[in-house]
């Protein structure tokens, strides 16, 4: 049923745009024709693959760093108090504002694009993990200590499972931010990628191609979020089952 509304919306836009003479809003048939010409499938290896590769690398690094720092800060009150002002300052910075600094440090290229994605994706994961760890019932930790479980056993048997839902919540937010930053970085300093294609089409006043690129970005975001939800449902099946039983 969830596909009904998108299909109806596309049908309405398709019919409403027929015969459109507005330069900036071409008809859907023209946009779909440009979509087929550009993305089926000549530009898959030259634009889609590089974009997804940079997104995957930056997202993976950002999640890894965010999770590691999140668990460190969540488990240590001293570390949390020491670095909390720095974390709050950095996560309050709009990631695109850091792009000029990254371009000076890394130059124009893949390193800058990946670094921007890392900078934007690390904070939601870090904050979510810290919140998840610090919300664990102290009784569970005390019980584990009374059973003489080692710190490593307590970490993997209690802390990680208890904070996993918050970790995935932060990852989902970071994924959306990563897609946005992927596009921004490609529009500013790249010679390939979906964002580069969109900005080049806009500069050349090729409106059907520009809208085709925007539609592709929406499709990429939808597919990636759907895949992430599938992975989350599998990994956290025990958590969703417990919520179902509780309700």
UniProtKB/TrEMBL annotation:
Q: Does the keyword Iron apply?
A: no
Indicate whether Transmembrane appears among the record's keywords.
yes
The entry's protein name is: ABC transporter permease
The record describes its membrane topology as: Multi-pass membrane protein
Keywords per UniProt: Cell membrane, Membrane, Transmembrane, Transmembrane helix, Transport
Which family is it part of?
Answer: Belongs to the binding-protein-dependent transport system permease family.
Give the matching Pfam families.
BPD_transp_1
List residues of the ABC transmembrane type-1 domain: 48-232
Task: Fetch the InterPro entries from UniProt.
Answer: MetI-like (IPR000515), MetI-like_sf (IPR035906)
User: Transmembrane residues, as ranges?
Assistant: 52-74, 86-108, 114-133, 177-199, 211-231
Its subcellular locations are: Cell membrane
The organism of origin for this protein: Leucobacter muris
Q: Which SUPFAM superfamilies match?
A: MetI-like
